[in-house]
Amino acid sequence: MAAMMDLNADLGEGIGDDIAMLQIVSSASIACGGHAGDDQTMRKAIRGALANAVRIGAHPGFEDRDHFGRRRLDLSSETIRSQVVSQTARLVAIATQEGASVSYLKLHGALANMTAEDKTLSHAIFLGVAETFPGMAILALAASAQEAAARSVGLTVITEAYADRAYNPDGLLVPRSQPGAVLEDTAAIVAQCVRLAEEGEIVAFDGTVFRSAASSICLHGDTTGALEHARAVRAALGSRVPT
């Protein structure tokens, strides 16, 4: 039986068409000023989410705007936790001013990849989240160290898969530095999402099939043909997407 499938997108990053994406997705992960974004872009994204009845999430990452948060940094877990908490607090404050709430947190870029592999780092970060924002859920790559760490500190987890990313057999993403890491064919992207929703399966780059309990699919807005891909996925999933 096909499962309901949340669609999320990373917004407020100064790239892509946020207005159009907000008419497609059911959750918006909003950049909090670390890898991208500022008070103005956060406020605009929050207002757009409210207007479209879209769930709001925080999207903190490394404070490395020159590399869009996609460079792995060797920082202490305390420093990273502080960055994540302060960025999230900034978005929460603006959301409160707009009469909105931030219901989940999704880590960005290199930090997301590092924490998907490293439960100790994930635990340190999510412990800070749990202490500061106890009611906030974590949107995390399904079956990753992030998911395990978030659950270990008592946070609710929303498990995620990616519409346009290739997977390793262990369920982690193929690094962007490798050819084919980002899917570009709309039909292939739709097929990956439909198989996940209908069968709970993902096909890795080597043909291996693995099970996935993901309940949310990330639609990137900064890739070539992003809106075409997103609209096609939404149409294919139809009533499986919550409204």
General description of the model:
By secondary structure, this protein is α/β, with parallel strands linked by helices. It has one domain (6-240): Glycoside hydrolase/deacetylase (TIM Barrel, Alpha-Beta Barrel). The protein contains eight helices and nine strands. It has helices spanning 18-21, 39-51, 77-97, 109-117, 119-132, 145-152, 186-199, 226-237; strands at 6-11, 27-31, 55-59, 104-105, 137-141, 157-162, 201-203, 209-211, 216-218. The strands form two sheets. A seven-stranded parallel beta barrel has the order 1-2-3-4-5-6-9. Strands 7-8 form a two-stranded antiparallel ribbon. Helix 2 packs across helix 3 (77-97), helix 4 crosses helix 5 and helix 5 crosses helix 6 (145-152). The chain is globular. The mean pLDDT is 96.
CATH fold category name: TIM Barrel
Q: State the CATH class.
A: Alpha Beta
- Largest sheet, order of strands side by side? 1-2-3-4-5-6-9
Helical percentage: 25-40%
The CATH H-level homologous superfamily: Glycoside hydrolase/deacetylase
The number of distinct helices, counting runs of at least 4 residues, comes to 8
- Sheet with most strands: 7 strands, parallel, barrel
In terms of structural class, how would the helical and strand content be classed?
A: alpha/beta
Number of domains: 1
Strand content: 15-25%
Unreliable spans are none
Note the gap between the termini.
19 Å
Order of helices and strands: EHEHEHEHHEHEHEEEH
CATH architecture: Alpha-Beta Barrel
What gyration radius follows from the Cα positions, in whole Å?
16 Å
**Mean pLDDT value:** 96
Tell me the total number of β-strands: 9
Shape: globular
